Amino acid sequence: MQIEFYNKAGEKIVAVLVDTDDHWEACEQGHTMLQAELICGADDFQVLED
Description:
Elements: E1 2-6, E2 12-17, H1 23-35, E3 44-48
Antiparallel strand pairs: 1-2, 1-3
C-alpha cells in the first residue's frame, strides 16, 4: 500500500510505501505517522492501493 501525505493547502508532500496489503492497517499506520508528526508539515493522508 502507499500512503500519500498532504499539507493544509492540499498539496502532496510525500508518498510512503508500507508493508501491508490491508487497507485499514495502512490507515492506522498513516494516522500514527500524523499523530507522531513524523511527516513534517503533513495535515492529512490518503491510502492508495499499489
